[in-house]
Amino acid sequence: MAFGPNAIRSMELIDPAIRKAFNTRATKNGAKEDEATWINFRCGLGEPDLIAKVQTTDHDKTGLSSVHRAHFIDELADLLPEEIAHFGKRLVGLATLDSGKMQLAFEDDTTAHADAVVGCDGVRSRVRQFLLDTKSPLEDLTFSGKYAYRGLISMGMAKEALGEYLSGNSQMYLGPEGHILTYPIAHGKVMNVIAFKNQDTPWEHESWVVKNQGDAFKRDFEGWGKPVQSILQLLDSPDQWALFDHQPARTYCQGRVAILGDAAHASTPHQGAGAGQAIEDALILGRLLGDVQTQGASDIPAAFRAYDAVRRPRSQKVVTTSRAAGLTYAFQGPDGGDVAGIQEELLQRFQWIWEEDMESQLAQATTMLRGERQVAVGTGRGLVWGWAAVWKQVLEDLVSRVLVFIRGSR
C-alpha cells in the first residue's frame, strides 16, 4: 500500500504511535534526488523518456511511501490491548436489538454486542450489504475496465536488468491501453511490479483472480520498449487480477451502523489514494466517537451522520478521479497520447488529494455534531446531554475570552 502526505498527516493526528508504526515498516525511493518523488512517469514505448517527475509538496518530503499491508496491520495490532482485538472472524448477520444495541453474528456461531458497528470489512463488505440493503456484497461493484498482473522481483535481479536508478525508485511506464508501475518494497530488497491492461469487455470469470496466465502478459505488452520488456522477462507467469470499484453509496451510515475505507468507497489504485482515504475516515470518525463517549450512546447516530456528510463527497471523488487517471495513463484521457498535455495533467492531478486540510474537516464534523445536539435540545429530545453540550461550548467560549482579556491587559 502507498500513502501520500494527507494520509501520513492523518496518522499523526489520530495518534503519533501510528505514524511511528508506519515509518518502522515503510519503504521509500532509494535515490536522494527522489526523496520527495511520488512517481517518475515515463514513456513505455522505445526509450523510457521522462514525461513528468511528480513530487509531493509537503515539508517532510513524503514521496512514495509504501508498506506491506500485513506488516502494517501487525504493527497496528501491537498498539491494541490483546483482549479487544479478535482475528479470523467472518460476519454473517447484523441486527438491532430492542435495547438499541447491535448484535453481530459470525460464521463460527459466536455473537457479539455493541453500541455501534463500524464496518471496515473491505471491498466485499457484509456490513455495507446490510446497511444499504443489497442482495449481495457484489451488487454495487463495477468492473473498471482494467486488470493487472502483479509480481515481485529481487532487487539484485532488477538492478542487473534495469540499472540502479530505474529499479530502486518509483517509475510508471505509460503506453496505449496499459501502464506498468514499479517501486521498491521491503526496505529496498524487492521491486514490486504491477502491469495494468485495458479490457473493453465485461469481466466474465467467476473469480477476480485468474491464476497461471502463461505468457499472456508478454503478449499484452508486445512492442513496448526495452525497460518494459526487461521487467516482463523477470516475471514468471503472474496471476491476472481484475480491478473493481464501488458505485457511489447513497450513505455511509444508518442508525448505529457505519462503513469506512474500502467498505464505503473501494477505488482503483491509479492515484495511490484509496488506503489513505481509509486513514482520513478513521481520523474523522474516531474523533467524533471520542466526543460521543462523553455524551452517551444515544449520540452515535448524530456522530455517524456528521462523518457521512464530511467524508462521502471527498472519498467518492477519489473513486471517480482514480478511474480517470487510469485512462490518462493508457493514453485514453482528454489528451490522448499527447505528451505535453499528459505532463500538464500529471503535474496537477494529485495536489487536491495531498494538500487537504484535515484539521478543517475535523472542525466541520465537530460543528455538525454539536449543531445536532442543539437541535435535540430545541425539540425536547435528549434534554440532559443536549444542555450539557451547550453549556460546555459556552464555558469554552467564556474561558477563551477571559484569556484574551488577560493577555491584552499585560
UniProtKB/TrEMBL annotation:
Gene3D superfamilies: FAD/NAD(P)-binding domain
Sections of the chain in a coiled coil: none
Residue ranges constituting the FAD-binding domain according to the UniProt record: 246-321
GO molecular function: FAD binding; oxidoreductase activity
A GO biological-process term: secondary metabolite biosynthetic process
Name of the protein in question: Putative Salicylate hydroxylase
Pfam family, one: FAD_binding_3
Key words of the record: FAD, Flavoprotein, Oxidoreductase
